[in-house]
């Protein structure tokens, strides 16, 4: 078995990993629910939202990969299993079936807002444990808040 990387002290590693894992779960859920909305949105804003949701999904997948690989760089296993995502996500689930465009806007705005807020909380905690992981999350939350602004701007 390959020796785990030892980048940080053990307690710092544990605290950092807890924050990274929390963000990883939210990002994977955001990517899964983004596709759910991409497929099932209906209404006059279909085309815009259908395309825009794929941009969110693409970013969320990339960010999830960045976070998971940071966990591995710290010598910790990343957990992206479906049952773990379902249990630990901070995001509200979309309803089953097709979803009206206005409701997609409301619900995705809420998901982005939750993911960004939880990310910010993790950033605050990482300040005293690992600046590199903090830096990764700062970039992610910046991107989440950009998507949040774009979704908010479409609501009347
Ligand atoms: Fe598609």
Give a verbal description of the structure.
The protein has helices at residues 10-40, 46-73, 82-88, 101-126, 131-152, and strands spanning 41-42, 99-100. The protein is mainly α and 156 residues long. It has a two-stranded parallel ribbon. Helix 1 packs antiparallel against helix 2 (46-73), helix 1 packs antiparallel against helix 4 and helix 2 (46-73) runs antiparallel to helix 5. It starts with 9 loop residues before the first helix and ends with a helix. Bound molecules: fe (ii) ion.
In short:
By secondary structure, the chain is mostly helical. The protein has five helices and two strands, in the order H-E-H-H-E-H-H.
List the topology elements:
Elements (H helix, E strand, L loop, with lengths): L9 H31 E2 L3 H28 L8 H7 L10 E2 H26 L4 H22 L4
Parallel strand pairs: 1-2
Record keyword descriptors for this entry.
156 residues; mainly alpha; Ferritin; two-stranded parallel ribbon; 2 strands; 73% helix; elongated; binds fe (ii) ion
């Amino acid at each position: 078995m390959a020796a785990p990387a030892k980048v940080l002290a053990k307690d710092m590693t544990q605290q950092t990993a807890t924050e990274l894992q929390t963000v990883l779960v939210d990002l994977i859920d955001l990517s899964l629910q983004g596709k759910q909305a991409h497929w099932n949105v209906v209404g006059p804003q279909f085309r815009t939202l259908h395309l825009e949701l794929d941009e969110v999904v693409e970013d969320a997948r990339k960010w999830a990969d960045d976070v998971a690989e940071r966990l591995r760089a710290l010598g910790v296993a990343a957990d992206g299993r479906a049952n773990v995502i379902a249990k630990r996500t901070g995001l509200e689930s979309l309803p089953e079936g097709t979803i009206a465009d206005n409701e997609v806007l409301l619900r995705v705005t809420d998901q982005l807002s939750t993911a960004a807020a939880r990310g910010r909380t993790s950033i605050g905690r990482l300040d005293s444990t690992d600046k590199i992981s903090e830096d990764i999350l700062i970039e992610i939350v910046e991107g989440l808040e950009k998507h949040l602004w774009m979704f908010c701007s479409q609501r009347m």
